[in-house]
Amino acid sequence: MSIPAQLQRYLKKQKLKFDVVEHKTIYTAYDLAQTTKEKLQAVAKTLVLKVHEPKKLSDDPQEQKGIHHVLAVLPAHVRVDLAKVKKLLGAKKVTIASEKEVAQATKGEAGAQTPFGGHHRLKVVMDAGLRKVGHALFGAGSFTHSLRLKVKDFERSEQPVTGAIAEKPKRKKERNENQTSAHHPR
After folding, report:
1. Which end of the chain has fewer surrounding CB within 10 Å, N or C?
2. Residue 112 exposed, middle or buried by CB count within 10 Å (0-12, 13-18, 19+)
C-alpha cells in the first residue's frame, strides 16, 4: 500500500473501508478515469478553494472571519461553480487556491491532494451529484495510487457541507456553438 503513512493512520482512525487502486502516474481526474476505465462521474476530484468570511461553514464565530482554505469535492465530469460555493457557504468571495497555497494548506503536492479534510484540518464542501454513484475513486496523496470507497462512508467521515456546487454540464450542441462562436465571431 503506497499511500502516505499519515493518511493511512487517518483512514484507520476513521474506520473507513477502502481499496487502494494502483495505476500509472496520472496528474488529472480525467487521466485517472481513462487509466482505470472508470466513468468520470465515479471519479472524485478535489480542489482547494480560498473562502472569504464563510458564514455557513461553521457555527463558530471565529471560523466565520478571515480567509479559509476549503476542500471542494465533486465528480470529475463537471466544473466547480464558485458562485454556487459562495452562496452555499454564505461567503463574501471564493477563488481557486494557487499551487503554492494548495501545497501549504494540504502539506502535499498540488494535484495529489486528498479529499479528507479531517486529515488536513480543512473543512470540506461536496457536490451532491457525487451521491449518484455508490463508490468513487478519491485521491490518495499520490500520483500513482487512488482510493476506492463508498461515497456515503466518505460523507460519514468528513461531514461535508453538501449542495449543488457544480456548473451544469453543457449539452453537446451548446459546446459546439460556443466553440464555433469563439473562433468565428458573428
Report:
1. C
2. buried
**Cell matching residue 57:** 461553514
Q: Which CATH number fits the domain that encloses residue 30?
A: 3.90.960.10
Q: What angle do CA 41, 114, 27 make, to 5 degrees?
A: 70
The C-alpha R_g of the chain, in whole angstroms, comes to 17
Whole-prediction pTM: 0.86
Low-confidence ranges of the chain (pLDDT < 70): 1, 169-186
Strands 67-75 and 44-52: antiparallel
Host domain of residue 77: 5-183
Phi, psi of 131 (to 5 degrees): -70, -15
